[in-house]
Design goal:
The strands form 3 sheets. Strands 3-8-7-4 form a 4-stranded parallel beta sheet, with helices on both faces. The protein has helices spanning 2-10, 29-32, 57-61, 79-89, 93-106, 122-128, 132-144, 167-174, 200-211; strands at residues 13-14, 21-22, 68-74, 114-117, 153-155, 178-180, 188-196, 216-224. By secondary structure, it is α/β, with parallel strands linked by helices. The longest helix has 14 residues, at 93-106. The radius of gyration is 18 Å and the shape is globular. It is 36% helix and 17% strand. It contains 9 helices and 8 strands.
């Protein structure tokens, strides 16, 4: 039995977070248990936790353009580490694991007809070499058997990063940054991204998608920033 266990460990991979050998995939069971999963009761529009899953105050006051959203994790340790390693350090295998986590969390329900990743401006795509949102959409599409179209929407303005801006400035900064084409006409689509903070970028992309004729627009993100 010991020999069999040792042979199994020879094929185990190091856990993404703790480095221990994992026979359960990229994340070992102990670290998986620490992941900051969002509660089931969330605002259906923006995915912030709410009592009884009611609409949050912000969405009651100013509903986003996208019709609903889905998120898996709160954007905090250790989920934030995984996303940053994918986004900034080229650890592309993490995209498949994150997509699997999202696919498992979505459960049953009406599926969109098309997945559309958050586009990067060509300059930023050239600098980074890949679009993490496109990788997530690709893996999700394969897992859920939903077509994905990375070129249906483009980023036509190279805006400064949103992360350091207050909400009002984020909305101004991202205004008019996207263009979508007629491939979305009449479709129920899901916009795929890694993180939703204020939702300003996804909201602006949803506006462009609806201008292009999208019938319904969801936002699918791996993590949601809470208490921003």
């Amino acid at each position: 039995m010991t020999d069999i266990l040792n042979k199994c460990l020879d094929f185990a991979q190091p856990c993404l977070f703790c480095g221990a050998r994992s026979l359960a995939g990229l994340v070992c069971p102990d670290c998986a248990a620490t992941l900051p999963r969002l509660p089931a009761e969330r605002c259906p529009h923006c995915a912030l936790p709410t009592l009884g899953g009611a609409l949050c105050g912000a969405c009651l006051k100013r509903p986003p353009t996208f019709d609903r959203s889905h998120a898996v994790f709160s954007y905090r340790f250790p989920a934030d580490v995984a996303i940053q390693r994918l986004k900034y350090h080229g650890e592309l295998a993490i995209a498949r694991w994150l997509a699997d986590e999202m696919a498992a969390a979505l459960g049953a329900g009406d599926r969109p007809q098309l997945l559309v990743p958050m586009p990067l401006h060509p300059r930023r795509l050239s600098e980074r070499g890949y679009n993490q949102a496109a990788l997530l959409a690709q893996h999700l599409g394969h897992r859920l058997h939903i077509p994905q179209e990375a070129m249906a929407c483009q980023r036509v303005r190279d805006t400064p990063p949103q992360v350091a801006l207050p909400l009002a400035e984020r909305r101004r900064n991202i205004r008019g940054a996207f263009s979508c084409d007629s491939r979305l006409a009449g479709l129920h689509i899901a916009l795929v991204d890694d993180v939703m903070t204020s939702g300003a970028s996804l909201d602006e992309l949803a506006k462009a998608a609806k201008r292009a004729g999208a019938r319904a627009v969801e936002a699918w993100v791996i993590a949601r920033t809470v208490n921003t």
